[in-house]
Design goal:
heterodimer, A: alpha+beta, Sufe protein. Chain: A, four-stranded mixed beta sheet, 5 helices, 4 strands, B: alpha/beta, 2 domains, four-stranded antiparallel beta sheet, globular
């Protein structure tokens, strides 16, 4: 049960039950859809990017606690970041949840570090992030976690 | 499933039958001793694959230790042993599904390959633009995609039998879909996501009125109910060994001999030929015409052992046990607030698909796993079916002959842990 609490921290439940930045973003100029074929989870990410800076980020979709909380926390985190900073953050976040790199400067995102112990759930945690990368690259095709 | 007292343990010794029941069956499966996350394994993912009895594990192992050789060609002793064991297994499979002849039993990798074989050999050689293939809404992707590929190749179209909210096929709609353009009906005998047992006998009769052959996807049926292809009068029947307590990588396509005879080969290679020259090749007779290349010999022998194992238990005892378990499980989970069962067909095998309000199936699966309870979560390769129910996924507990009421209790207990964790 202890490991489960490591995965399902209060912050995760908070963002699962009340996701931040949820819904369509008016005035978005980047958009991408993400899809996890493993569980059927879908996320649509909207970004408003001006002068290389992400001014606003919102998402829609349905998913598990991990993927929803991850998307919610990510949108909070992206606002004000330069595009290249957002992509660096993706790398760090990916390193954290796969356990391949040790990172200490992820702030609130560190609540998702428990995913390392649950390899089957890494794709849930990274779905929104892959979608963010696709949105920045303006890839119209839905991205998948495969 | 006639038990006087629902709370009587199933693991009883029945003096009348001399059957020790589920406890003795459990002892046949070494993996059931396993612990996960420090808890005894409660394996409820049998619709994905069943565990293997010692008999099956030993049959493969003994073959490799004592008889390993290629089949059908050596003049040496080991090749003869291997061929005898291989062909004996074909005979066992024939008896399992009551085919007329062993020539009608084609060994393939699994249900998926069996369906692809029929699509590419039977379908591709005779379907044309405008022809129709009838499937149902509850098909596994393996009984959808091979037909979509065939439709792209031939210009044929798919027609889909709708289902009701209990997860049963709409027979009247099916009857109306049948017409002179219909060239094949391909439906699941039992639904992998819902457990629904489809009224295939009646459906086959209706199709035959129109001269339309029927393929049954029997992946979820063969381990849970007796299959008699002659009584069903089905034209093709496909199933996998690994859902039948046998090894992975081996499955069976049954086809009526007359149909198989008329079909072109599916793959070319060794074993499927009689003679080869650069001017042309003469194909082998059934069933070898469809078994190109060295087959999964150990898998076939393991499958034969699995069929023997099931025969030793008998479908009467197995069905009584599994249906009692389904009834107990259905009743047990029905009391859980916020839980909704997906699939309430009158005729069901022991599959319990469910959703919990406000909790995603994936999260249910992770938490249950931490309590040692292995279930499947997701769309179960039935995305059109999930769409019908307006959901992305379900949690699915699927039972086998070695599961017990105590395990159902652990499932229920673990579901309450999920709710507690999620504050629901």
């Amino acid at each position: 049960m202890n490991d489960l609490r490591e995965l399902y921290q209060e912050t995760i439940f908070d963002h699962y039950h009340q996701p931040r930045n949820f819904g369509r973003l008016q005035g978005a100029n980047r958009r991408a859809e993400g899809y996890n074929p493993l569980c059927g989870d879908k996320v649509t990410l909207y970004l408003r990017v001006e002068g290389g800076v992400i001014r606003d980020a919102r998402f829609e979709g349905s998913g598990c606690a991990i993927s929803t909380a991850s998307a919610s926390l990510m949108t909070e985190n992206l606002k004000g970041k330069r595009e290249e900073e957002a992509l660096q953050l993706l790398d760090k976040f990916h390193g954290m949840v796969t356990g391949s790199t040790m990172t200490s400067d992820l702030g609130k995102l560190a609540v998702l570090a428990g995913v390392t112990e649950f390899p089957q759930r890494v794709k849930c945690a990274t779905l929104a992030w892959h979608t963010m990368k696709a949105a920045l690259q303006n890839i119209d095709e839905p991205v998948t976690t495969e | 499933m006639i038990l006087d007292n629902l709370f009587q343990p199933l693991s009883y010794y029945d003096e009348n039958s001399g059957n020790y029941g589920v406890l003795s069956w459990r002892a046949d499966f070494p993996i059931l001793e396993t612990s996960v996350h420090g808890k005894p394994l409660v394996y409820l993912d049998n619709a994905a694959t069943t565990q293997k009895p010692q008999m099956v594990i030993e049959a493969e192992s003994l073959y490799y230790r004592h008889d390993n050789a290629n089949v059908h060609r050596g003049v040496h002793a080991l090749s003869q042993h291997a061929t005898d064991a291989f062909e004996a297994a074909r005979g066992k499979v024939r008896r399992l599904i009551n085919a007329v002849s062993s020539d009608e039993i084609i060994f393939v990798r699994g249900t998926t390959e069996a369906i692809n074989l029929v699509a590419q050999s039977y379908g591709r050689s005779r379907f044309k633009a405008g022809d129709e293939i009838i499937l149902s809404r509850m098909e596994h992707h393996s009984n959808i995609v091979p037909w979509q590929i065939l439709c792209e190749q031939t210009g044929a179209n798919l027609r889909i039998i709708p289902i009701n909210n209990s997860g049963e096929l709409e027979l009247e709609a099916y009857n109306q879909l049948l017409n002179s353009r219909t060239k094949l009906v391909a439906v699941a005998h039992v639904s992998n996501a819902l457990g629904t047992i489809n009224p295939v006998r009646a459906m086959i009769d209706l199709a035959h009125v129109h001269g339309v052959p029927v393929l049954l996807d029997g992946a979820q049926a063969v381990a849970h109910l007796p299959v008699d292809v002659q009584a069903l009068d089905c034209d093709f029947y496909a199933f996998s060994g690994h859902k039948l307590y046998g090894p992975t990588g081996i499955g069976v396509l049954y086809g009526k001999a007359a149909l198989l005879e008329a079909m072109p080969p599916y793959q070319g290679g060794g074993d499927m030929i009689r003679s080869v020259s650069f001017d042309g090749t003469t194909y082998n007779t059934l069933p070898y015409k469809f078994e190109a290349g060295t087959p999964n010999i150990a898998g076939v022998i393991g499958l034969g052992a699995a069929v023997d194992y099931l025969a030793g238990i008998g479908f009467d005892a197995l069905i009584e046990h599994e249906l009692a378990l389904l009834s107990y499980a259905t009743q047990s989970v029905s009391d859980i607030p916020g839980l909704r069962i997906i699939g309430n067909a009158l005729e069901k095998t022991a599959i319990l698909s469910f959703v919990l309000e406000g909790i995603h199936p994936h999260d249910i699966g992770t938490v249950l796993d931490h309590h040692g309870v292995a279930i499947r979560t997701g769309h179960h390769c039935t995305m059109p079916l999930m769409e019908h129910f307006g959901i992305a996924a379900t949690a699915r507990a699927s039972f086998a002959l070695y599961n017990t009421r105590a395990e159902v209790d652990k499932l229920v207990e673990a579901i309450y842990h999920v709710k507690e964790l999620f504050g629901r």
